[in-house]
Design a protein that fits this description.
Strand 10 (about 140-145), helix 4 (about 155-160) and strand 11 (about 170-175) form a beta-alpha-beta unit. The protein folds into three domains: about 15-110, DNA methylase specificity domains (Adenine-n6-DNA-methyltransferase TaqI, Chain A, domain 2), CATH 3.90.220; about 115-245, 2-Layer Sandwich (Endonuclease, Chain A), CATH 3.30.870; about 290-380, no CATH class. The protein has a seven-stranded mixed beta sheet, sandwiched between helices. Strands 1-8-5-6-3 form a five-stranded mixed beta sheet. Strands 4-2-7 form a three-stranded mixed beta sheet. It is about 35% helix and about 20% strand. It is α+β, with helices and mostly antiparallel strands. The protein is elongated. The longest helix is centred in the middle third of the chain and has 31 residues, at about 240-270. Helix 4 packs antiparallel against helix 8 (about 240-270).
Amino acid sequence: MNELPEGWTVESFSQVASYTTGRTPARANPAYWAKGERQVPWVAISGMEQYGTIVETAESVSALAFESVFRERIVPAGTLIMSFKLTIGRVATLGIPACHNEAIISIFPREGVDLRAAVAYASRDNMKLFGACAQHLKPLEFFGRYDHTEAVDPVVLKRFLDKASPNYDCKLVPDILHAKVIWWVEAGAYIGSANLSDRVWISNIEADAFLPHDELVETGMERELLRFFEEVDDRARPLTKEIYQEQLRLADRRSELSRREYGLEQQFDKERLLPKNHGLVFVDTKRSSEKRFQKFEQDWNDTLQVMRSIASRVSAPGARLQREDRCVNCSCHLVMACFLTSVGGPLSREWHTAYRRDRYPRRSGDEQKPGTASVWRVLNIAGSTPLRPQQV
């Protein structure tokens, strides 16, 4: 590279500009190219004069193509466009709003550190991200989910409508967006499991990672993020007043459902078997005696579950016992014999017999030493690994 003029620096394209690619509606569908009142100019490379300004196009697409293929997104007049396939590097400026084909990109200069966020769910109780961008005039492009669950709170939608500008934009992806990615383009990217709500950022256990900009570039993740947001943008629709009003009506209809869910949650909390987790920032005010009892109760229930698992295995069809001589406390047999008797099963009698024989050995040549017992293990249970009782 030749020596740069004084004051110039070398930057990657993504640091100074963002871009979008175009589309070519299917030629096989005449409805996409039909003439009508709402035709939209469509630019091909052949219609680009190098460094020229485009004020008319040889072809236009129909309103149907503009809606279904271009998702009603038009490139504004004054935008720099460039061909990057077939004929590479031809540059022109749009003098009119238009669409263009997939061999051309629209280039939009970045105004400082901008932020792109694709977060499916956003509630009104956590708008710090949106507020910070608005306060510091940082460009923000937000993608949220659109469905019947009121994924993005109408309060959040209203904020975007009130402050709508090319640098403060909200788009919605119907039904399939479930990502949680926040990308500070020149700083780094958050990729994790948290939505934009106080509960997930303060209380929940989430799996998150922040990758600094240098690491994104070195690992190629920056290119992947560009492709990801391009894919999301391709499936998104701009937020409109009509969508906001629809979601507002949906919120009214869901209010009764929310009340019922709250009542169900309160009833569940009164009857729940497991103690409630209050989150990572919760301070437990229980007395030490209560904590000890809670720990004992947890150990007791864990032990019962282990015993139930043993019972299900030894009660399985084809289960059989095999004796292995070891010196252990014979109470192991007693516990298992009593347990098997309580739960039933074909092995309970055999285990009782083994216990009695080991506890009261015969005098006729029995080699067992006083105070010892045999450990019994379960073998060949449904093809599983042998289960060995531990020494007591």
